[in-house]
Design brief:
The chain is α/β, with parallel strands linked by helices. It has six helices and four strands. Strand 1, helix 3 and strand 2 form a beta-alpha-beta unit. The longest helix is centred in the last third of the chain and has 18 residues. The protein has a four-stranded mixed β-sheet with strand order 1-2-3-4, with helices on one face. The radius of gyration is 18 Å and the shape is elongated.
Amino acid sequence: ANIEAFCNGFNDGLAAAGGAGSTLQLPATAFGDATAVAQAVRAHLLENPTIDAMFAIGDQDTNATISGVQQAGKTGAVHVCGMNFNDSILANIQGGTQACAIDQQGYQQGFFAVSILNNFVNYGVTIPTREILTGPGVIDATNVELVIAGVQAGAR
């Protein structure tokens, strides 16, 4: 239900911006099966030649989506974005096979919470009462090198 709500929200956002989106439903047996995901993406693209972008819900599915785009002969014509990142996702963005990744910035969520509580306990600094936005961020060709440097430094 959470993934379905996520996809519906994504499509609603596209519609609000004047675009159109749809959700490629996969059976539960495809979960974690990169071959099944790639084959489904390939078939979907061949059946729907006007698709020019795809969004995947996780780093493994993003890699499988890229494979499906390549198998459909749509590299460069279909832009891929995904949720979360790992080394292969960063390499995809560097290499141009992936347009972007959504970075939930979990590090900041933990860092800010611990820092705020440390300052409160040790120094009596007032705890913020409003939201502290920690993301999401977008990783793309304009900032992928900086993100990689952060990973190498152990900060991400």
